[in-house]
Amino acid sequence: MSAATPPFLRAWTAFRRPAYAARPPPRRQFLPREFLEQLLSGVQARLPLLEAPLLDWALAERVHDPAYLRRWQRGEVTRGEERALGFRWDPSVVERGLASSGATFAAAQDALSTGLGLNLGGGTHHAYADHAEGFSFLNDVVISAQWLLDGGHARRVLVLDLDVHQGNGTAAMLANEARAFTVSVHGANNYPFRKERSGLDVALPDGTGDAAYLAVLEGEVLPAAAAFRPDFAFYLAGADVLEGDQLGRLALTPTGVRERDDRVFRWAAETATPLVTVMAGGYNRDPQKLIEARLTTVEALLGSVAGRR
């Protein structure tokens, strides 16, 4: 581990839990196992890497319909529901959802005490209160955001979603929560094909590259975030904005993704906003390119630490 690593910063991961080893997600959803281990090793060379705790069901029940959760616990789901999720039900689906959400919750605790938290997975923003969609069973960010607000740990929470897909479940679940502001910058022609209404939606045309993307971030998105004056933020740092992503239609370069991350982390440091970063989507045809993008986000996060001192 680097001598420059801040002593308080660590990464949480669900990817080494038994449920992931027993039945990894579909290949196009994430990385083949050998590349996943390469990613985890790369992060571990930079930061302490901790295994995610399982989320307490009571926290999930604060934002999700308890009847929905019980059915998924028992496997009482229809084939249509499995298709909406993107893969078949088995007990590992439930454990992975709890672990991913547990990692985001642990990262939120870190951010409360140190200003920064990191989950190497998470960002399951297509989960609704009462149904699963798009590889998302539990909405990890909404679970943690609601806990922060209801517990008085934060007064105003920003969800800055820069995944290539609109955070439809997050937008719907927080639509009536005045203390939360949801921002989604996404491909106009990407899944989900029926969008929800976020606090701010920016829909980009296919092929959008670095210059146009960063202009929107700097000219519209970060000013709107600042105007909301959050005292806590979640950042969905999707790598599926990269050119060559199987499920994305944008065309950012690795340099553009690094600049995106730098600007978000710099804004959070300058405003002293506690920030949880979750990695969200990434399905690049070149696994090495995806690994490099993930490690670039970690490096950008490390580079922002000095600005918080």
TrEMBL record:
Keywords: Hydrolase. Residues 57-286 form the Histone deacetylase domain. GO terms for molecular function: histone deacetylase activity; hydrolase activity. The keyword Transmembrane helix does not apply. InterPro entries: HDAC_classIV (IPR044150), HDACs (IPR000286), His_deacetylse_dom (IPR023801), His_deacetylse_dom_sf (IPR037138), Ureohydrolase_dom_sf (IPR023696). Coiled coil: none annotated. It holds the Pfam family Hist_deacetyl. PANTHER family: HISTONE DEACETYLASE 12 (PTHR10625:SF19), HISTONE DEACETYLASE HDAC1-RELATED (PTHR10625). Belongs to the histone deacetylase family. This is Acetoin utilization deacetylase AcuC. It comes from Deinococcus hopiensis KR-140.
